Amino acid sequence: SPISALGFAYYGGMIAHLGDLRGGYRFTKLAKALIHKHPNDCNEIAGEVMWVTSDTLSYLEPTQSIKEYRREAGQMALAG
């Protein structure tokens, strides 16, 4: 559900902040997958999930892809 994606996004960020970047990365990838699995059901929180996960993803993914991901997150947040 969309709420699960939000929970996984924040949990992944917390784990990464505590030092487990790989563990946090896995949870943020799960949150991202849940958002993309149900795109029409979660417009309201998709932008927030994407923005929160972008912080953790930025440690392990190329900067250019994160810039595009954040741009998409902003657009989804405004559309929701």
Q: How far apart lie the N and C ends?
A: 16 Å
Give helix % range.
Answer: over 70%
H/E series, N to C? HHHH
Structural class: mainly alpha
Shape: globular
How many DSSP E strands?
Answer: 0
Strand content: under 5%
The average pLDDT is 85
Number of helical regions: 4
Largest sheet: none
Computed over alpha carbons, the radius of gyration is 12 Å
Stretches with pLDDT under 50, minimum 5 residues: none
Which SSEs are present, and which pair or pack?
Layout (H helix, E strand, L loop, with lengths): L1 H16 L3 H17 L5 H15 L5 H17 L1
Protein architecture, described:
The model has no long low-confidence stretch (mean pLDDT about 85). With about 80 residues, the protein is mostly helical. The longest helix has 17 residues, at about 20-35. About 80% of the residues lie in helices and about 0% in strands.
Summarize the structure.
By secondary structure, the chain is mostly helical. The chain has helices at 2-17, 21-37, 43-57, 63-79.
Keywords:
80 residues; single chain; mainly alpha
